[in-house]
Write a structure and sequence with these properties.
The complex is a heterodimer of chains A (365) and B (306). Chain A is mainly alpha-helical. Chain A folds into two domains: 16-108; 129-361, MetI-like fold (Orthogonal Bundle), CATH 1.10.3720.10. In chain A, 75% of the residues lie in helices and 1% in strands. Chain A has a two-stranded antiparallel sheet with strand order 1-2. In chain A, helix 5 packs antiparallel against helix 11. Chain A is flat, with a radius of gyration of 28 Å. The model of chain A has no long low-confidence stretch (mean pLDDT 85). With 306 residues, chain B is an all-alpha fold. Chain B folds into two domains: 11-77, no CATH class; 89-304, MetI-like (MetI-like fold, Orthogonal Bundle), CATH 1.10.3720.10. Chain B has 13 helices and no strands. The longest helix of chain B has 38 residues, at 11-48. Chain B is flat, with a radius of gyration of 27 Å. Chain B starts with 10 loop residues before the first helix and ends with a helix. The mean pLDDT of chain B is 85. Classes of the chains: A mainly alpha (365), B mainly alpha (306). At the A-B interface, helix 2, helix 3, helix 5, helix 6 and helix 7 of A face helix 1, helix 4, helix 5, helix 6 and helix 7 of B.
């Protein structure tokens, strides 16, 4: 086994009795969990009105997890105490992700309308067939590609702002706080502040500005392209500070003497940027862009609140589409299938992106 | 003999000065323009909450110059000076949502910081082996949760929570929010802990502290600024979360963004009350942003630079 970075000499004397006690704790609490679950499945589910839900099983599960953690120390002594650092978080994530995902798979292959009495009915691959013909879903996926491509523009703006903030300026603190503020606002508030009032076609200040500039009937959510652009702008507005700050941190970590050496060697500012600063910023840039993509893939709040997908699904993101699919038709089965397919696309996309990023980051010389 | 100037500024150097000024003007111009873009919507929302219908329709912008500020919007929320003493259903509703948001955001962030710090510390100090998983795999396991879009978990959780009667409960939201910010916390804290020299704990262990004792009394105080940064960042993300809250809550546990969203559709041109509501909703985070800006930037910078 490889060496711990923090090496501790221990003289644990773990008696066989302790090991046995530890194993007992795990198995006994596990048996309790199985018993309670079995009792509920067999019909205890309906027995008592107090237990009309799966709470008892939940409590038994929590008891089992607690016993498991305590048994670590009982069984392994000092080693167990070390594991206790990581085990709670691992169990938490596993139970919060693993069960819902497995459960989600079972929902995805069924026709389940939450408001109907018939409950869950497995329908095989019907959902996939339906998805194949659902133009709105593919449209939403295409929109996601557009929304993701908009990150390139956001990145350029964020990089420019970070460069400016990193140069010799006065009142840097003021500008930093001002630039950061949009990130603090909730997307829901932004969708009212910007989407519903400032971009309002009659009285909004931006419409007024457009009219003074000579556009007669400014309408921002009328046709597909403008509406999509407006969503992109609002989302960019909230998230540019995020990239900007990451890039600023990257810029500040570049030693000044490298750029000075380049200047002494006769590099123009332009060369200095493209040949020195930009390559040094590549790792930070890729991290920032990756996190930005992750946040972009969750994009929904603004769309739900400003356009609810309209006009004609032109601004829909996958998340907002599934949200409405559930809200309008409470169809859990179909919605989950769409989400699962989305997840598959994301995983494939990210694997490719990380492979490509690894290739770009490899030093050229 | 007239005085002859011996040293002259070269033509090129004189031009340099002009160029320098031009450059300064452009730089500050761009900075001010972007500051305007960032601040104008906030200014607009705050001033609109003091407007009346004619002010909105005429497009008045500057209070006291263009129009006289009125308390109409705030009165409809029950938060104007003359109504603040009386009972108001809207304000009671607002306070309830506000408390829900605060409780959920604070608990989820605390839980995430505790769980995440422990895991990050363990991963930065010890070698683990859970089955085939080594340290790098465990880190990747945690961080990979980031790419899981919320929509994948949303509907299964909806059904699961219905089965265990946790729909519309704050605990349900807290658990989910903890899950969403945990990877970010682990990312920030892993960076923090690996920058603390191991010799500190070795000295503490030699002096007779246990591992957990050394962690709690030596390491946590040193890593506290990083923990605060992670906490603030989680707070911002969870306070503003809308998607899960809209799906999983209906009456009791509804958070502030859901309340704001539910009002947006019903309003016509009476923007003042909507603006007042938005102002009240964004106010806490704007204050946090201004006061704790240092920590937020530190948190976001931690992951970026290795």
């Amino acid at each position: 086994m490889s060496q711990d970075r923090l090496y501790v000499v221990t003289n644990d004397q773990i008696t066989p009795g302790r090991v046995r006690a530890g194993k007992m704790m795990i198995w006994a609490s596990f048996a309790l969990l199985v018993l309670v679950a079995a009792w509920q499945i067999m019909g205890g589910y309906d027995l008592a009105a107090d237990f009309s839900n799966w709470r008892p099983t939940l409590y038994a599960y929590m008891f089992f997890v607690t016993c498991f953690c305590m048994a670590l120390v009982v069984r392994h002594g000092e080693q167990g105490k070390r594991r206790l650092f990581v085990v709670p978080a691992t169990i938490f994530v596993l139970s919060m992700v693993f069960f819902p995902l497995v459960f989600g798979l079972s929902i995805a292959f069924s026709d389940w309308n939450l408001s109907s009495i018939s409950g869950q009915q497995y329908n095989g691959f019907d959902n996939i067939r339906q998805m194949w013909q659902d133009d709105f879903y593919w449209n939403a996926l295409t929109n996601m590609v557009w929304y993701t491509l908009a990150i390139i523009v956001e990145y350029a703006i964020a990089f420019g702002l970070a460069l400016l903030l990193n140069s010799q300026i006065r009142a840097r603190k003021f500008f930093r706080v001002a630039f950061l503020l949009p990130l603090m606002l909730s997307p829901v508030a932004v969708s009212w502040m910007v989407g519903k009032s400032m971009l309002e076609a009659r009285f909004g200040p931006i419409a007024r500005l457009a009219r003074t500039l000579g556009i007669d009937n400014p309408s921002f959510f009328g046709d597909a392209e403008t509406a999509r652009a407006m969503i992109m702008i609002m989302d960019a507005w909230t998230f540019i500070p995020f990239m900007m700050i990451m890039l600023l941190a990257g810029l500040q970590s570049i030693p000044k003497d490298i750029q000075e050496a380049a200047r002494v060697d006769g590099a123009t500012p332009w060369q200095n940027f493209w040949e020195v600063t930009f390559p040094l910023m590549l790792p930070v840039s890729i991290t920032a862009i990756m996190i930005r993509i992750i946040f972009k893939l969750k994009l929904a709040d603004i769309i739900i609140n400003v356009t609810s997908g309209g006009p004609g699904g032109a601004t829909d993101s996958v998340t907002s589409f599934i949200f409405r699919e559930y809200r309008d038709r409470s169809n859990v089965g179909y919605g989950t299938m769409l989400a699962m397919v989305y997840l598959v696309f994301i995983v494939i996309g990210f694997t490719l992106f990380m492979k490509l990023a690894a290739r770009w980051m490899r030093p050229k010389y | 003999m007239s005085e002859v100037q011996i040293f002259h500024d070269h033509e090129a150097d004189l031009g340099h000065k002009v160029k320098w000024y031009a450059k300064r003007v452009t730089v500050y111009g761009i900075l001010l323009l972007w500051a305007f873009i960032c601040l104008f919507p906030i200014y607009w929302t705050i001033t609109t909450s003091f407007k009346l219908a004619p002010d909105v329709m005429q497009g008045n912008m500057i209070p006291f110059v263009d129009y006289t500020p009125q308390w109409r919007g705030w009165r409809s929320l029950g938060m104007s000076p003359d109504t603040i003493g009386e009972y108001s259903t809207v304000r009671a509703e607002f306070v309830k949502r506000f408390l829900n948001s605060t409780i959920v955001a604070l608990s989820a962030s605390s839980l995430a910081v505790v769980l995440g710090s422990l895991a990050a510390y363990g991963l930065s100090r010890f070698e683990y082996r859970f089955g085939f998983m080594r340290n790098d795999d465990i880190s990747f396991f945690f961080l990979s949760q980031l790419i899981l879009p919320p929509v994948v978990l949303a509907l299964p959780f909806l059904v699961l929570y219905r089965e265990i009667d946790m729909l519309d409960s704050r605990i349900g939201l807290i658990l989910l929010y903890t899950l969403t910010v945990l990877p970010i916390v682990i990312w920030i804290m892993r960076d923090q802990f690996s920058s603390i020299p191991i010799e500190l704990e070795e000295a503490a262990l030699v002096d007779g502290l246990s591992i957990w004792g050394a962690f709690l009394t030596i390491i946590v105080p040193i890593a506290l600024p990083g923990m605060v940064a992670a906490f603030i960042l989680s707070l911002v993300l969870t306070w503003n979360e809308y998607f899960f809250a809209a799906l999983l809550t209906s009456t009791d546990a509804t958070t502030l963004p859901v309340m704001v969203a539910s009002q947006t559709g019903s309003q016509g041109i009476n923007w003042w009350s909507m603006a007042a509501l938005s102002t009240a909703a964004i106010f806490p985070l704007v204050v946090i942003g201004i006061v704790l800006e240092r920590y937020i930037i530190k948190g976001m910078a931690a992951g970026a630079v290795k």
